[in-house]
Amino acid sequence: MADVITCPTGLTGRVRGMKVREERILADRKLARSGGQMDELLGSCWEETLDPGPYSLSEGGKPDWGKVLQGDRFFALLMVRALTYGPGYAFGVGCRNDACRARIEWELDLTKLPVRQLSEGSRTAFIGGNRFETTLPDSGKQVRFRLLTGEDERKLPALQRAAPDRILSAVLAYRVLDIDGVDAKAKRQFLEDLTLRDADFLVDEFDRVDCGVDTTIEVECPECFTVQDVDLPFDRGFFLPGKERTARRRDRSASSLR
């Protein structure tokens, strides 16, 4: 089954659900270590490009997924999952209320998640070199930064592991291109010395000019009625829901014994 999807930047194409052969991609440890699984999966399930959006196409008329913005990549992956198993996605989380700690079973429609489109201004800046500018409120410094692509997705986990006690400054340093009046060698130290107000402002600016899917979901505990925000679980199990299959088999077995 294939369908036409339009990503947040306007990238449009014909996409199909996963086949049995795609399971090899998700089970490939070498691809997992290199961070290339999602690129391979997208490349396999993307059948035809109808509108390249802000991107140059690779050989064969397909996007170079390493150069595609995170927001487009994630949206396309959600649609691949929805085309494979249907739009419904069920998951479980624990209640954060210490007096409860019940298991919350939740289900949502992946095609109904809020999507932020890339603005015309951001599209122009991305095509013009992926260079954005803002002014920090406390320091008054002008900062240039970039949006993250698939190639960056591969590098960020290693970057965060290398500086587990300085994740925020490491990510800021990776995304910030340059700062007015600050030498390139002093950029990391300048970002370490930012006020938290400036740091929060900068992260908000990243989000403001970017595109993507809002994956923060509000769930309510059925036992104590506590409402909490959770991030959509996104791992290998998202594409190979073996636990759901096991649960269905268990339910069928239980029914046959009645």
Could you characterize the architecture of this molecule?
There is one protein chain. This protein has 258 residues and is α+β, with helices and mostly antiparallel strands. The protein folds into two domains: 2-115 and 213-248, no CATH class; 120-210, rbstp2171 (2-Layer Sandwich). It has helices at residues 22-27, 29-34, 37-45, 70-85, 120-127, 150-162, 167-175, 187-192, 196-209, 236-239, 242-256, and strands at residues 2-6, 12-16, 46-51, 88-94, 103-109, 115-116, 132-135, 142-145, 176-179, 212-213, 216-220, 227-231. A three-stranded antiparallel β-sheet has the order 1-2-3. A three-stranded antiparallel β-sheet has the order 7-8-9. The longest helix has 16 residues, at 70-85. The model has no long low-confidence stretch (mean pLDDT 89).
